[in-house]
Amino acid sequence: MIQLRNVEKFFQHGPTKTFVLRRVNVEIKEGEFVSIMGPSGAGKSTLLHVIGMHDSAWTGEYNLLDFPIHALKKKDRDEIYKKYFGFVFQSYHLLDSLTVYENLEIPLSYRNVKKSERDAIVCDVLDRFQIVGKKDLFPNQLSGGQQQLVAIARAIVASPKVILADEPTGNLHSSQAKEIMEVFKKLNDSGTTIVQVTHSEVNAGYGHRVIQIADGWIV
Fold it and tell me: How open is the CA angle 16-19-21, to the nearest 5 degrees?
């Protein structure tokens, strides 16, 4: 489903190149649950953002299903992203001017879901994550853990084919973290492909395999 071939990313400082990713070759099959692990600064989040098409300043080849992502214009990449991906950002990326309810509704509006269906889906997700009482609050009225729950709910609300998660349980206490990983496991069992960046061996244990990265290289 996801194929990266000789993907590299670097920053140019005068004549010097500082590499963040080096000759990355990765293949992720549809329905897999993969964890990306490695020390801080190894390139884990960068790799996830390349897969999630938030970062386009890289070289190499990236094929998603039948789409040659490396050859597409930004507009076409954006459409593919909206159709296939849900992303859990480490820093939440909730829209501060929108309520929790409105933040959850946005991915559905991208997919042209009817208003009545959107309402039903959002209400179901609010209930599943036990945040019904927060639906009219704005992100700055929530704790870090609550914002994390909303961010995860937003990533899955439109039933994407692929969920990308950057340290998805980093701000949650252990019981919440376990619940979220169980949600991911159920989604994966029903066919959703999941790629997570994690430092947690426990979280990695929910997946099928681990991709280890160090100094930008797959090891």
Answer: 165
DSSP E strands, 14-155: 16-28, 33-37, 59-64, 67-68, 85-88
**Best CA proximity match to 203, nearest among 161, 160, 166, 155:** 166
Q: What is the pLDDT of residue 46?
A: 96
pLDDT of 111 reads 85
Match 């597409």 to its residue by tokens: 72
Which of these, 205, 183, 204, 161, lies nearest to 31 by C-alpha position? 161
What is the reported pLDDT for 4? 98
Positions of E strands within 79-174: 85-88, 162-166
SS3 (DSSP) at 118:
helix
Show the low-confidence residues of the chain (pLDDT under 50). Answer: none
Provide the 3-class DSSP secondary structure of residue 201: helix
pLDDT of residue 119: 94
**Rounded to two decimals, what is the model's pTM?**
0.92
Q: Which pLDDT score, from 0 to 100, does residue 110 have?
A: 83
Please list, in sequence order, all residues whose beta carbon lies within 8 angstroms of the beta carbon of residue 64, skipping any fewer than 6 positions away: 1, 2, 3, 80, 84
Specify the CATH number of the domain 2-218.
Answer: 3.40.50.300
